[in-house]
Amino acid sequence: MSVSQESQEKRSPAGRLAVLTSPKAEQWTLRGIGWALAGLIVISTFENNVRAGRVLLMAATIGLGVWAIRCGWVSLKRLRAVQWPVIALTVCILAASGLSIDVGYSFSTFFEQHFWFLILFAIVASWATDSERQMTILRGFLVAAGISAIGGIVLFYAGAEDFVKVSFTPDGAEMLRAEGMLESYTRSAMVFILALPATVAVGLNAFRNRKRAWLVAAIVVCVVSLWFLVLTRSRGPWVATAISTVLAIVFLRGRWWMLVAIAGLAAVFVLASPLGRARAATLVEDIGQPDRLLSGRIGLWQQGLDRIGVHPVLGLGYGGDIFTTHAGIEKYELVTDNREPDLHQIYLQTMAEIGLAGFAAYAWLVGTLLWLGIGALKHDAMPGTRVALAVLIAFLIYGLVACFNEGQVALLLWTMAGMLVVETKEATAA
Fold this sequence. Notes:
Layout: H1 3-11, H2 13-20, H3 23-43, H4 50-71, H5 83-98, H6 103-127, H7 131-157, E1 164-168, E2 174-178, H8 185-209, H9 212-232, H10 235-251, H11 256-272, H12 274-285, H13 290-293, H14 297-310, H15 326-332, E3 334-335, E4 339-340, H16 346-377, H17 383-398, H18 407-429
Antiparallel strand pairs: 1-2, 3-4
Helix pairs in contact: 1-2, 3-4, 3-7, 4-6, 5-6, 5-16, 6-18, 7-8, 7-9, 8-9, 8-10, 8-17, 8-18, 9-11, 10-17, 11-12, 14-16, 16-17, 16-18, 17-18
């Protein structure tokens, strides 16, 4: 065959399809999806990056579609393990949005949040099918944690007005808190419930495979992450991060000295800070005063039960800010010492937003993911799956005092959830 004929064949539709589906093209497509996901994780730890996040997510979606031409959509079959709970939850959200006290807000939140979370979930579940791809995602969390923690620390000590929050203890003492890169110190601290165990997993993998650069990076990120967490003075994320990190080390079959080293380092940062010591001490001192330990949430939860009783089946309407919409403030305002944006508990908040029907679908999905994750541990699960299970358990516990169904933290959590689906389908097939 002459060179000109070969060139013409490549330019024909069949030739272009052959190039598109070649092993080399597939390799670069898969790499591109990984880079897009890692980039999405990094920028999701910063405020006001929604548009850039959408671009990266669309890039990953297009890459997945190109890849599917070659693999014949086989990878998407992995989603069958969770398809019915996901469909049930989505139907309940749409129904609740149609009957919402603010229909426009609920539907816009659905398309700006839940719709994109589902796409991300499908991409991760379809793409992260081996240890190295999962490690790409975990490294994205490591980079995100490092940038977020270092930025938060520098801005806190520089006294940047928008990144330092002045609050007060129950005794009236002033307390400075690092706001970090997201909209609040609590949201910024939540990132590390996912990022710290991911960093530990990268470090453990580097230690076992003698990759010094990643090992050093993991150690540095662990140090700055713990330092930043102490500066947020946010007790809930402290406890949740401890749970996710301990479980991750156990699930990853790490060494006992890793637990000791991380706990010791956290203790040093707490003890080195007078406010850190005082804040940590309240965890013990307030045990006998539940309302003080829970920062006034008991009264808020009682209001939540009243609101749930108004529309028990399909709720008030989908959206974490449903109580701060015009109709929400007018009829269902939440008030403690201040006007509260949500119920500070994921389970009550879910029932309030999408009703008991929606909560049942939510519980079905979460229960399925837990079952898949626990089942994966019996089949020599990959590192990303082990970390994802640890993170999910920690968030379910933390959800007793916090909400995280929307925003950047929810996006990161859906990323982790995708790795739970991947492993179990492989284990079941085996």
